[in-house]
Amino acid sequence: MDVKGKTILITGSTDGVGRYVATKLAGEGAKVLIHGRDAARANAVIDGIKRAGGAAPVFYQADLSSLAETRKLAEQVLADHDRLDVFVSNAGIGSQNEGPQRQVSRDGHELRFAVNYLAGFLLAHLLLPRLKASVPSRIVNVASLGQHPIDFDDVMITRNYSGSRAYAQSKLSQIMFTIDLADELAGSGVTVNSLHPATYMNTTMVRAGGIAPMSTVEQGGDAILHLVSGDDVAGRSGLFFNGMNEMRANPQAYDAQARARLRELSLNLTGLG
Q1: How far apart are CA 3 and CA 253, in angstroms?
Q2: Is 161 part of the annotated catalytic residue set?
Q3: Catalytic pick among 20, 60, 117, 167
Q4: In sequence order, what DSSP letters do the residues of 3-51 get, joined into one string?
Q5: How many Å apart are CA 111 and CA 209, to the nearest integer?
Q6: What is the pTM of this model?
Q7: Tens digit of pLDDT for each residue in 62-97?
Q8: CA 129-76-32 angle, 5° bins
Q9: CA distance 194 to 144
C-alpha cells in the first residue's frame, strides 16, 4: 500500500517505536496524526519530521488512562479528518512504569489493562465508521509475546498482583480483541492484525523496567510498518505476528467463549455496551 496521502493515526507516537513509525510514514508522504501526553515531546517529533522534509504531523494530546480523554481524542480526530486509512494502537505502559505496585486508572480499572487494552478497544470502535468509509483500511494493534491468560474471576488482578502478569494479560487481551474484531469486520474492507514488534527494544518503557535492551527501535518499527503498508498482508486479518513472521498466540486467544466474555466486559467498561 502506498502511504502517500494516507491519513494514519498512531497512539503513543511521541517517543520510542511510535515516534520511529510516525517519522518514517511522514517521510513517505503520509498525513500522520501523532498522539501522546507530553506536548514538548510532540513538538520535538514535529520539528524533527519537518527538518527531514516530511509534512508536519498533527498532534493530539490525551491521557489514555482516562476513558473520557480517550473518547475526546476520537471525537477530535473524527471532527478534523474526513478519512482515516490506518489506526495504529501503539500506546502502552510496561510492567514497571511508575513502580511495581498495583495501580488503577482514572476510572478505577487496573492501569495496564486500561491503558494497553481498553483505550485501544474504545478508540477502534469509535473510529470504525471513518475507517469503513476509507476502505481498504487497516488497524494494527501493537501487542507482545508476553501473554498471560485472563482470569475472568479477577480481571483487575486484585489478588496476587504482579506488573509482568498485568502487562501480559493486557497484551493477550489486545490479541483476543484483534481476532474478535477481524471476525466482525470480515468482508468490510477493514483489516485488523496484531504483533510483537521486537523483544525488549531500546525504549523508555524497557529502560524503566530495568531491562537491558535486546532489539533496536528500528527492528520493531519496521515490523509495525509491515502491517501498516505491506502488500503481503493486504486483505488478511485476525493474525498475530512475531516481528515479520506470522505465529500463534496464547491458546486463550482462540477460545471463542473467552473472547465473547472479554468483549462483553469491555463493552460494559467502556460504556459501549
Answers
A1: 30
A2: no
A3: 167
A4: -TT-EEEESS-SSHHHHHHHHHHHHTT-EEEEEES-HHHHHHHHHHHHH
A5: 16
A6: 0.95
A7: 999 999 999 999 999 999 999 999 999 999 998 877
A8: 85
A9: 9
